[in-house]
Backbone:
């Protein structure tokens, strides 16, 4: 069972030497003056550490046996920074006589006055590992009393150094600060009781990343932006409970409850989180992406370094590996509700509702519901931690997303009308989001039904007003959008356009190409076909190149679309017919997309059918 604090493990190890105290007590025939040396020898023999008692040894006999050691020093291993593991002005141990007689020692009380504990970890060694192999479990402690104590914890390899002041003489008071995983850390706790099986504390904690708490609590914790939390920490026979939790994680307010139980055969973690104002980018570290690091956003120094590395590498997909130990060694049942989502300007998410469950090494996010752009996005995601690398599967559906709300930062789109629908089904394997998508197989389908678009949208693609006319015959005005459909087949991380078409009142645009998720690059071409034959020669194709992080859209000045366009339309017919089930279940049978399907065979000019469309087919399969 993971300890709540390293101090707990240290105290338990320290209590183990009580067996040697009482054995030495009997061996000395209850002569207090002669107890010092036998106790020192017995403890040294049992622990391998030198014990020095500089003051008097006192004892009291009865149904409860009490022994008091004054001016105590217990040595540390030679490799440790501090010479002594424990220094204390006074140590008092109280045990029932019956437990000593039956050979199963338990302590009613362990009191440490002015103790200094030096806890250190190095190369797998721990200063608090006191008992020799085969020495048995430490005795149970009924009540632990620490008067004006200091605890130091050092782990240089983990960039962790924390100093805590602990006092339980009246109420429990704990104040700790230092660095945890190289970042500032603070913890304050107070409450009425302290015992290994009965804790009830008010706790305030702050740091750069909750994942670093693994050093303290002993279990895997998800990565987050910097946090400040407070709540009630209880421990009972059922487990650990962190209740009435409030505060912030990143720029999001949170209210939460958490319960951890060390049940056989697997521990279980239950979490419920509600945020009235959820900053969407604060969820980034959960999938290996840094939060937004622009001025005013909350992120740790390490997360800002990660963001710079991704920007310098031109990467858009997170490469940080998942910590599969989060769900490999314990079961999880978590819910997250974001009543209002604060989002980047280009990401119009209104609310979030998610349920996460992990059983026997398989993590499932089901459902994930996002209210966005007046519609909704539903997702089901699975990560199988039993396999290496991880196996992942995702199903995502988009329903009734309004175009004018879907692109809020694009001024010409603010007047657009129409609804977007879609779905994606992908499977892959890898240790990060980038690796999962780089190996992905599946399909991505999108459709927009009825509406209008402004030709000014094209200016955002790098076209001036004159160039815009090369793509649409309507000029600089709103154009009727009948339907837009995209269908991409994905294999080994390469998304190939089986269908890419935009149908307006005066122009049909057919596209082809690939999106390489392995290299995060784009290679797409749009071929316009006017419905007014007199303008046919005025069309040029549009190239979409660059990366996912920095796409570039430019007309091809050397290649007018007077050849191959009709063949491109012919090549469109079969993929469009194959997409019929999606069109019929997406926008609906009565939509313009359904009419687009019905008219597919009439688009191509029979007189140009001798061009077999080899260029488009070649680009679509590349």
Residues:
């Amino acid at each position: 069972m993971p300890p709540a604090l390293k101090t707990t493990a240290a105290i338990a190890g320290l209590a183990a030497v009580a067996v040697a105290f009482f054995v030495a007590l009997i061996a000395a025939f209850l002569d207090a003056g002669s107890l010092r040396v036998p106790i020192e020898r017995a403890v040294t023999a049992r622990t391998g550490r030198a014990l020095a008692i500089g003051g008097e040894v006192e004892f009291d006999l009865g149904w409860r046996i009490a022994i008091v050691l004054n001016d105590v020093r217990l040595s540390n291993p030679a490799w440790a920074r501090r010479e002594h593991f424990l220094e204390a002005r006074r140590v008092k141990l109280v045990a029932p006589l019956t437990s000593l007689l039956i050979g199963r020692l338990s302590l009613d009380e362990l009191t440490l006055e002015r103790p200094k504990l030096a806890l250190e970890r190095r190369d797998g060694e721990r200063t608090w590992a006191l008992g020799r192999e085969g020495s048995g479990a430490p005795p149970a402690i009924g009540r632990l009393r620490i008067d004006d104590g200091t605890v130091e914890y050092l782990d240089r390899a983990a960039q962790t150094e924390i100093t805590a002041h602990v006092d339980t003489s009246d109420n429990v008071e704990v104040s700790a600060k230092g660095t945890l995983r190289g970042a500032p850390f603070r913890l304050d706790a107070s409450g009425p009781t302290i015992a290994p099986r009965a804790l009830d504390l008010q706790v305030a904690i702050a740091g750069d990343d909750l994942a670093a708490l693994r050093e303290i609590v002993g279990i895997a914790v998800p990565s987050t932006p910097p946090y400040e939390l407070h709540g009630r920490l209880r421990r009972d026979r059922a487990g650990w409970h962190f209740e009435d939790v409030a505060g912030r994680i990143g720029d999001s307010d949170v209210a939460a409850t958490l319960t951890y139980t060390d049940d056989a055969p697997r521990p279980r973690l239950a979490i419920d989180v509600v945020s009235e104002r959820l900053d969407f980018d604060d969820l980034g570290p959960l999938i290996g992406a840094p939060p937004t690091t622009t001025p005013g956003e909350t992120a740790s120094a390490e997360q800002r370094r990660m963001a710079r590395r991704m920007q310098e590498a031109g990467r858009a997909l997170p490469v940080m590996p998942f910590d599969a130990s989060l769900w490999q060694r314990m079961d999880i049942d978590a819910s997250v509700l974001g009543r209002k989502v604060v989002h980047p300007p280009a990401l119009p998410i209104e609310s979030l509702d998610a349920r996460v469950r992990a059983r026997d090494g398989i993590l499932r996010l089901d459902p994930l519901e996002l209210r966005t752009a007046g519609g909704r996005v539903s997702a089901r995601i699975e990560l199988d931690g039993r396999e290496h690398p991880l196996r992942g599967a995702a199903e995502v559906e988009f329903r009734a997303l309004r175009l004018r709300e879907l692109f809020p930062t694009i001024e010409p789109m603010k007047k657009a009308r129409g609804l977007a629908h879609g779905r994606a089904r992908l499977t892959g394997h890898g240790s990060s989001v980038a690796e999962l998508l780089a190996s992905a197989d599946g399909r991505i389908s999108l459709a927009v039904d009825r509406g209008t678009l402004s030709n000014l949208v094209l200016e955002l693609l790098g076209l001036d007003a004159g160039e815009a006319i090369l793509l649409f015959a309507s000029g600089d005005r709103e154009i009727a959008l009948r339907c837009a459909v995209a269908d991409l087949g994905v294999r080994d991380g390469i998304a190939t356009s089986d269908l890419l078409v935009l149908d307006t009142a005066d122009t049909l645009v057919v596209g082809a190409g690939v999106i390489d998720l392995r290299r995060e690059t784009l290679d797409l071409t749009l071929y316009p076909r006017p419905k007014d034959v007199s303008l046919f020669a005025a069309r040029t194709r549009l190239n979409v190149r660059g990366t996912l992080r920095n796409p570039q859209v430019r007309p091809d000045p050397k290649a007018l679309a007077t050849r191959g366009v009709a063949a491109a339309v012919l090549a469109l017919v079969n993929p469009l017919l194959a997409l019929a089930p999606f069109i019929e279940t997406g926008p609906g049978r009565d939509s313009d997309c359904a009419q687009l399907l019905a008219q597919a065979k009439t688009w191509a000019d029979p007189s140009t059918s001798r061009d077999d469309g080899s260029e488009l087919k070649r680009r679509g399969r590349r």
Remarks:
- Residues 1-195 form one domain.
- Residues 466 and 475 are 9 Å apart (CA to CA).
